Amino acid sequence: MQHRCLACNATYPTGFHPFCDACGGMVDVEYELDEVQLADSADPYIRFAGLLPLRAPGAAGRASNLPLSKYSPMIHAVRLGRQLGLTALYLKDETALPTGTTKDRMAAVALAYLHQRGVRAFTVSSTGNSSTGFAYRIPAFPDMHVSIFTAEKFVPRVQYADHAQVTHFGLREASFVQAADYATKYARQHGLTAEAGFFNPGRREGLKLAFLEACDQVPAPIDWYVQAVSSAMGVYGVYKGAGELRQLGQIPQLPKLLCVQQASCAPMVRAYEAGSPTIRPEHRVAQPVGIAEAILRGDPSRAYPHIRRIVDQSGGTFIAVTEAEMRAARRDVEALEGISICFSAAAAVAGIAALSRAGAVEPNAVIVVNLTGSDRPDTKPAENVEWLEPAQGSWAAPAEARKQLLL
What we know:
The protein is an alpha/beta fold. The protein has 13 helices and 14 strands.
């Protein structure tokens, strides 16, 4: 296993390096695939241990501190597929994971990865699912602490965070991007590690497990992989994992990628439809709104070039769907397949429905849609939130914010 900069090929054998120290490029994980063997196990952390960035697996075959696990369900959605004119539509039901979203597996791998790379205290920001995953999983690492920074509107979505290993800051009047930027600033000021979101290799490597499992569960080669996206770190991980499985001779082809956003917050779709290799100012959404809260990211500028590249390589595309389409997809999945999903997962279903209506996908294509999460109705939001107030272009504790406003 090697950590290598995709831009200049610099390598990083130790430490946490989401970005290259030499050129600022993205650092990714490469495996010695000639030495990788998939284990005969129903536990994905054991079966795919050779394709995870974790060293020294324990006696059971999984890296230390990883949970006991099993594959999330795969449903051949015959009734929904019939309605959409698709005969081989499969739904990867990530709502069955402990936190109700695919970010549970992300947090499990990312925490183990950070720990093995020497990180003990770090900052993170999200629209709720990633932060919830970290808060839920961090007790498995008693010497670690996470400081969570959450934009005000997303604070109710953070759960499992009321314990000593979590400090939760809520930022009044902030957008997701502003909260993420402040988390990085806070880490720099207080000697913590900013875990870097999309650019944390542990996140991307954990999220590819959904597709690795799918290749064992679906009885034919997968033609399309569909997911709703904000930064699209899961899609990136999936495509990388597919390439690794193909090199291992486990699958014959790479899937086409369909990245779906809601029309009210679709910066990647806007840029792609404009033929732009980057997110330009006119593509960004300064104050994003929409019913799919988990994917309300208005400025994915740093991640987009990497995602555009792999979508083009795959022969896939980006698509935006309306609120009405998402609501209809959510009703259909529950009525026809018995799965209760969040609006972000519904966006993915609406996306493949729109592609099918447009005649852009073959009726017999093998399609896997990642139902990335549910609404977690059975757990209460975190209560111990330390609120930060706007203060001269930044945020501060209420007393300090008032003092700055008087200056």
